[in-house]
Amino acid sequence: MKEALKLFLKISKIREERAQAQFKKLNFELKKSEQFSQQVSDYVREYGEQMIQTAQQGVQVAFLQDSNAFRNRLENGVNEQKQQIVGMKHATEQSKAHALASQLKVQAIEKVLKRKNAEFAHSKEVKENKVREDSLVSRIKK
Q1: pLDDT tens digits, residue range 100-128?
Q2: Global pTM?
Q3: 98: confidence class by pLDDT, cuts 50, 70, 90
Q4: Burial letters for 61-97: b for 16+ Cβ neighbours within 10 Å, e otherwise?
């Protein structure tokens, strides 16, 4: 049984490492996406401000319409990115929960294995004491 627990612990540790790696990967991708989305949002805001300044200078209506259409496409892209980021946040949270569960599972198995080792050592000590006692009793009776 002790060997089975050791094997189960080894497998659980491998799963924990994988879960941790998956969480770190998703978290990195999430942060990267959030930074990119923020950059694009900042650009859309700056582009809108530039468009207003250009309109005040008196440019052709066609140019303003094209600029506004481009700005709208950028805003739509930012909104789509935000929706994807929400999904990534959810996946990251699930990954984090899975990694934590894996870690707790490993700790529980280690605790059981430690207890089993202590029980084994205690029973071995009891047996050795019994053998010594029997040996002493047999020597005394001789």
Answers
A1: 999 999 999 999 999 999 999 999 999 99
A2: 0.71
A3: very high
A4: eeeeeebeeebeebbeebeebeeebeebeebbeebbe
CA distance 85 to 27: 11
The first and second tokens of residue 36, run together, are 């990119």
Contact indicator for 110, 9 with CB cutoff of 8 Å: yes
Query: Residue 142 has what pLDDT?
Result: 65
Domain ranges, ordered by start, for the chain: 2-109
Burial of 23 (0-12, 13-18, 19+ CB in 10 A): buried
Cα–Cα distance measured from residue 32 to residue 52, given in angstroms and rounded to the nearest whole number: 31
Number of Cβ within 10 Å of residue 131's Cβ equals 10
Are residues 11 and 113 in contact, defined by beta-carbon separation less than 8 angstroms?
no
